[in-house]
Amino acid sequence: MARTIFITGGGSGIGRAVAQRFARGGWFVGLADVSESGMAETAALLPKGASSIHKLDVRDRAGWDAALADFAKAAGGRIDVVFNNAGVPVGGPLAELAVDEIERALDINLKGVIFGAQAAYPWLKASAPGSVLLNTASAAGIYGTPGASVYSATKFGVRAVTESLDGEWAADGIAVRDLMPAFIDTPLLDHNANRASNEDIRSRVKGAGLEISPVSDVAEAAWAAVHGERLHTLVGPTAKRMALFSRLLPGLVRKQVRGRAGAL
């Protein structure tokens, strides 16, 4: 029987790339998203009969239970990996952010991950050992930067959830991992940082002289994370530099971050 992975945010970007990578590896893939058209486009890129589609708003706790049960039915009763990937961008000075923008990011990026972990637990316990909860954190969960206070808060939270559950679920044989990508070439970069901004995130990243990594790098990192032992998997040169310098030279990182205020 093929191993199975349930992917939120499966209608585009990182979720789509990870779906393609695992399908190539012979896995049965569950696609979850609020966009039915996006999921259909992803499914069309996968081998016939290698996926199922499940409409899900990750903020809906009951919706999680229903989607996972439907996926398990389509996948032969077993869920090996749940990939908590759905997320939304938000950036810019905190004073410029609207209340609903802040709440949306917190609800999707953090509450959605917590709900997903809670809903996934009985399924992953049943398929353990060897089952995995994989979360999309971020380089923004390594060190907070100007213009990313809310987004960083959500990703520090995802990192904390990963570390907490790594210990909490060890006795159950469930592995817990996360990915920490920096800027990845997905459609999210073409969104404005916030409603008051007139510049998209991609332009800001390029203007700050930072690199944008291909989404295939994240897909390969997800494959390695599920099959490896590393708790946090860094993706992209910026993430790797930030992790190294924040550990060895925290004063230098703080100086550079303060000097970059307003760049992003």
TrEMBL record:
Superkingdom to which the source organism belongs: Bacteria
Q: Per UniProt, which keywords does this protein have?
A: Oxidoreductase
> Does this UniProt record's set of keywords contain Oxidoreductase?
yes
Question: Any idea which GO molecular function terms this record carries?
Answer: oxidoreductase activity
Q: What Pfam family is a match, any one? A: adh_short
Q: Known NCBIfam families for this protein?
A: PRK08267.1
The record's comment on protein family reads:
Belongs to the short-chain dehydrogenases/reductases (SDR) family.
Name of the molecule in the record: SDR family oxidoreductase
Q: What is the lineage of its organism?
A: Bacteria, Pseudomonadati, Pseudomonadota, Alphaproteobacteria, Sphingomonadales
